[in-house]
Specification:
Helix content is 49%, strand content 20%. The chain is an alpha/beta fold and 392 residues long. It has four domains: 1-90, no CATH class; 97-143; 151-228 and 356-391, Nucleotidyltransferase, domain 5 (2-Layer Sandwich), CATH 3.30.420; 230-352. The chain binds zinc ion. Zinc ion binds next to loops.
């Protein structure tokens, strides 16, 4: 190990000599000796003798390396306590340097599994797991903030084991996960919500069309505007109208090709798909009004950053579509009409904004990968730390 290499990876040491074999062993000492007692701050220190500390360090030219550090134990003549010399880049009691531990954390994070990494580095798999947990906790602490963001997205996701639910709180403005909490009902979330600081700061909360989240937001974020989530609103429309289509045309069944054509956005269909859709609508005339209703509703729901004047027109159009749904008198259409009229206010606000829980859904995908890579979590706290470290 050259002095330059050591300087770059672990500054604060002077190399005395090195032995190079399959293991690179470098004898070093710290550049600075302690001047003050850590207990009382006194400067009358007396050396109690030398000792050596051996720690793992980053590989050098492909060979593992070990630092042999000449240290001293000191006694403070002021308070009569003895202490060991603090070393830069090495935590008390550790047998490896912080750069080496960080490299282990990053390589494990990049996808090298603990047992393979442990084999390569000639340490126990438990050591890799421990280092990973320590760094995750440290990173999560750096990123975890207690002050609520101004634009919050709230959505639920599942934890595979036992199909438990968790609620994601996402900072939609900065596009990061603010926090996650176990459960999805108000009773489960209330103690967490009570611990948050600055709930008055939250101006906008984006939620799916769920009444339980709406009452939760009204109670816990009294100054926030509730905005319906575009992604979920469009999905609800699609689900109800497809159910209606299947009731009216039983032969549709679960034919994925047909359902796919009906679900897709009309302007995104290829010419061939357009042709097949027109054939389907010609063969089953009952589907046409449903399809047109879906297209009109989804076109309305996709609008964003509209002016207040434009919103007025859209409201008229939406109310007209809702009354058309009601007039049909069919059960699925009535349910959809009820949902849309319950949420009209939140949908109107949605037209004024661009942010939506698409960001949160993206993080849910990443959370699923985190769950999968860990083969499930037994402890919710460990899962939470990992999510905040990687998505926060
Ligand atoms: Zn002292």
């Amino acid at each position: 190990m050259s002095p330059v290499h050591l300087q770059l990876t672990l500054p604060g040491y002077r190399i005395i000599r090195w032995e190079s074999n399959t293991l690179m062993r470098v004898y070093v000492e710290a550049l600075e000796a302690p001047r003050l007692c850590p207990c009382c701050g006194g400067d009358r220190l007396h050396s109690k003798g030398r000792y050596e500390r051996r720690v793992r360090h980053l590989a050098c030219f492909g060979n593992p390396s070990e630092l042999v550090i000449g240290c001293r134990r000191y006694e403070c003549l002021g308070c009569c306590r003895s202490f060991v010399q603090p070393l830069p880049g090495i935590m008390p009691g550790r047998h490896s340097t912080e750069p080496w531990r960080e490299a282990i954390y990053e390589r494990h994070g990049d996808g090298i599994c603990a047992s393979v990494l442990a084999d390569r580095e000639e340490v126990a798999p438990g050591t890799v797991a421990r280092i990973y947990a320590q760094f995750t906790e440290r990173k999560a602490k750096e990123r975890l903030s207690l002050d609520c963001p101004r634009v919050l997205g709230i959505d639920e996701h599942t934890l595979h084991k036992g199909m438990r639910f968790a609620t994601t709180f996402c900072d939609l403005h900065r596009r990061r996960v603010f926090d996650i909490s176990a459960g999805r009902s108000e009773a489960e979330l209330s103690s967490y919500l009570a611990s948050l600081r600055g709930r008055d700061r939250v101006r906008v909360v984006c939620i799916d069309l769920s009444n339980s989240y709406r009452s939760l937001v009204r109670r816990w974020f009294p100054r926030a505007m509730i905005v319906a989530d575009r992604f979920h609103a469009i999905r609800v429309v699609g689900q109800h109208l497809m159910r209606l289509a299947r009731q009216l045309v039983p032969s549709l069944g679960w034919n994925r090709a047909w359902l796919g054509l009906l679900r897709a956005r009309a302007d995104r269909l290829l010419p061939d798909q357009q042709r097949r859709l027109q054939q389907l609508l010609a063969a089953q005339p009952a589907l046409r009004p449903i399809y047109e209703m879906k297209e009109q509703l989804c076109r309305l729901l996709r609008l964003k950053t509209q002016t207040p004047a434009a919103c007025l027109n859209h409201i008229r159009e939406l109310l007209h579509l809702i009354s058309t749904l009601r007039e049909s008198g069919l059960e699925a259409a009535l349910t959809l009409a009820k949902t849309l009229s319950d949420w009209t206010e939140e949908i109107v606000r949605m037209w004024r904004f661009t942010r939506n829980n698409g960001i949160t859904e993206g993080f849910h995908r990443k959370m699923k990968l985190i769950q999968r890579r860990a083969y499930g979590f037994r402890s919710f706290q460990n899962y939470r730390l990992r999510v905040i470290a990687q998505c926060g």
